[in-house]
Amino acid sequence: MSATFERELGQAMRVAREAGALLQENFGKSQEVEYKGRIDLVTEMDHRSEELIIGRLRAAFPGDGFWAEERGREAGTGQSDRVWIIDPLDGTVNYAHEYPVFSVSLALQVAGELVAGAVYNPLLDDMYAARKGGGATLNGQQRRGSKVDKLEQALLATGFGYDVGSEPDPEKNNLGPFARFIRVAQAVRRAGSAALAIAKVGVGRTDGFWEGGLRPWDMAAAMVVVGEGGGLLTDYTGAAPDLGGRQLIATNRRIHEEMLLVLAAGVHGTRTT
Ligand code: IPD
Ligand code: CA
Question: What would the pLDDT profile of 211-225 be if each residue is shown by its tens digit?
Fold first, then answer.
């Protein structure tokens, strides 16, 4: 693939900013909330942001396909196999509670490969972006993953899927890995927007991330940022991550092996502390 995807990334950033502005304008205003599950909710702003994003991207790139959190999949009509993977509001529970951590996440996948990604935090006006071969940027400045090489000096982030209350297996509901990591890392954060938490690894703001309950739109765009920032992305076994596989470890590369060991300790019963 020789394309640079500069135009696509530029457009993704513009659209993410526009959707972010819409979310910011309505932040703190009462929202109509529907429940998709016991905890999993959707506000009218998830829908409005998604409509705006798809409308703008469709106008710029007619023929492209879409895979969006609320609408689901829509095949493209163009000849090339291009799909935009969209989280119109990552951090919906936060947003509904006026907790100031949320983002807009847009990725482009071409023939199965993630080639561009933009994750935008409107409240801080922070744009994490990357395209294949172009490096990772934060607000237009080139950035790399951190140089931290020990878990005990690492700031990690994670998240919990919406089934945390109903899934009894601590390895699956993440309480097991969380308990182990919090003892061995410098600190662990759970801020409520996976896209932002993963993207931070690519620009060196944090050192590692893991989660086992992710959907493709939570991780796709931020994975491009981590890869282009020199980081490493795998599933919990150390294999290449699968967008549909729910699991992701994203690191600055230097602490990856240690994170894999801590995750495996729950499966093999090895002590890590
Ligand atoms: C959720 C957030 C959360 C993560 C969940 C996601 P949503 O996305 O990214 O941090 O732990 O797994 O589902 O529902 O706010 O778009
Ligand atoms: Ca999400």
Answer: 999 999 999 999 999
- Ligand 1 centre to CA of 114 (Å) is 20
Q: Is the per-residue pLDDT at 35 higher than 50?
A: yes
Opening angle at CA 235, ends 230 and 240, nearest 5: 60
Domain tally, the chain? 2
Distance 217 CA to ligand 1 centre (A): 9
Q: Of 126, 143, 160, which one is at a domain's C-terminal end? A: 143
For the chain, what is the radius of gyration of the CA atoms? Answer: 18
What's the gap in Å between 1 CA and the centre of ligand 1? 32
Which atom, in ligand 1's list, is nearest to the CA of 197?
10
Look at residue 198 and tell me whether its pLDDT is greater than 90.
yes
Q: Is the CB of 234 under 6 A from ligand 1?
A: no
- Give residue 189's domain range: 151-268
Q: pTM here?
A: 0.95
Q: Which of 88, 115, 114 is nearest to 103 (CA)?
A: 88
